[in-house]
């Protein structure tokens, strides 16, 4: 599996009663594929993975398989605080037809680097290709490039999503790239710089709301169309800033609700976006009128 381009980490839409909104989810899946997204992540942290039951994750993956199988890859979020729990989610993803899994470093337990190697090697012994995911502010543990270098040698570990927006960090990871292993940015604001340095794509939050813009952004950056990439990146900067004003996925769900694509429902302990933060978000979205639902 060779992953590249713009890959949205999809939100999970809920109905007003708190149940999954699979009708809205199906429409989001179709929109993403039609807009040029290269793959989709289902049930990741942007999809409120910590609030999903196993049967709900299975339902989301199955919906994605029905809509997109054979068109673009379907990546299932399987992050958990313990290896056995994460491995169980890998099995569910495989049974439901996912093409790969995205596994964040175990959170709260704060394993050592050796523990991270053992954790991901255990997941990679499973039936699906594994994408490593490092986001220290959320998990409390930082997977270092030297650790990724060890894991990149495993035949079933195919990529790393690196959310640390540091040029030295992503350049060290890019040195590990080959025909089998890819580096993907996990930070929307710095993705263009990472892709220019050789990263192959982006797993994005903001692409939930403006998928076509992000598909074009990453394609331009990869092709060396610097002026075009810079122009799109500048247009996206206010949106990236607005989405960073609250813990993810609070603001991106507010954005999609404003666009008429979902109901703005989150599961506790998350709360809707503060009213004081909405004008900036709405102004940023106004630059992309085509994103609004018909």
Give the tags.
294 residues; alpha/beta; TIM Barrel; eight-stranded parallel sheet; 43% helix; globular
What is the CATH topology classification name?
Answer: TIM Barrel
Q: How many β-strand stretches?
A: 8
> Helical percent range?
40-55%
Query: What is the residue-averaged pLDDT?
Result: 97
CATH architecture: Alpha-Beta Barrel
Q: What is the beta-strand fraction?
A: 5-15%
The first-level CATH class is given as: Alpha Beta
Q: What radius of gyration results from the CA coordinates?
A: 18 Å
* Count of runs of 4 or more consecutive helical residues: 12
SSE pattern: EHEHEHEHEHHEHEHEHHHH
Low-confidence stretches: none
Shape, per Cα inertia axes:
globular
Total discrete domains: 1
Largest sheet: 8 strands, parallel
Helix-strand category? alpha/beta
Spatial ordering of strands, largest sheet: 1-8-7-6-5-4-3-2
Give a structural overview.
The protein is of the alpha/beta class and 294 residues long. The chain has a single domain, classed as Alpha-Beta Barrel (TIM Barrel). Helix content is 43%, strand content 12%. It has helices at 22-34, 54-68, 83-96, 113-124, 136-139, 145-151, 167-174, 191-196, 211-223, 226-243, 250-258, 278-285; strands at residues 5-8, 40-42, 74-77, 100-104, 130-134, 157-162, 182-185, 201-204. It has an eight-stranded parallel beta sheet with strand order 1-8-7-6-5-4-3-2. Strand 2 (40-42), helix 2 (54-68) and strand 3 form a beta-alpha-beta unit. The longest helix is centred in the last third of the chain and has 18 residues, at 226-243. The two termini are 35 Å apart. 48% of the residues are buried. The mean pLDDT is 97.
């Amino acid at each position: 599996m060779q992953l590249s381009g713009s890959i949205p980490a999809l939100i999970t839409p809920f109905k007003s009663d708190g149940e999954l909104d699979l009708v809205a989810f199906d429409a989001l899946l179709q929109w993403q594929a039609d807009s040029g997204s290269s793959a989709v992540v289902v049930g990741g942290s942007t999809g409120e993975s910590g609030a999903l039951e196993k049967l709900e994750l299975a339902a989301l993956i199955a919906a994605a398989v029905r809509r997109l199988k054979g068109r673009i890859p379907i990546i299932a979020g399987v992050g958990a605080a313990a290896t056995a729990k994460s491995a169980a989610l890998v099995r569910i993803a495989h049974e439901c037809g996912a093409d790969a899994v995205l596994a964040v470093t175990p959170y709260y337990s704060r394993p050592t680097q050796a523990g991270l190697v053992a954790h991901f090697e255990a997941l990679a012994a499973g039936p699906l290709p594994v994408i490593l995911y490092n986001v220290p502010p959320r998990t409390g543990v930082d997977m270092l490039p030297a650790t990724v270098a060890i894991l990149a040698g495993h035949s079933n570990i195919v990529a790393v999503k690196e959310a640390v927006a540091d040029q030295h960090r992503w350049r060290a990871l890019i040195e590990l790239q080959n025909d089998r292993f890819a580096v993907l940015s996990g930070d929307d604001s710095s993705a263009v710089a990472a892709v220019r340095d050789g990263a192959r794509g982006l797993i994005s939050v903001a692409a939930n709301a403006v998928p076509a813009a992000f598909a074009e952004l990453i394609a331009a950056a990869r092709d060396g169309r610097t002026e075009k990439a810079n122009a799109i990146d500048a247009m996206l900067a206010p949106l990236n800033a607005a989405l960073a004003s609250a813990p993810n996925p609070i603001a991106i769900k507010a954005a999609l609700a404003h666009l008429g694509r979902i109901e703005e429902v989150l599961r506790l302990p998350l709360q809707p976006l503060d009213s004081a933060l909405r004008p900036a978000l709405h102004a940023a979205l106004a630059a992309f009128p085509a994103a609004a639902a018909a």
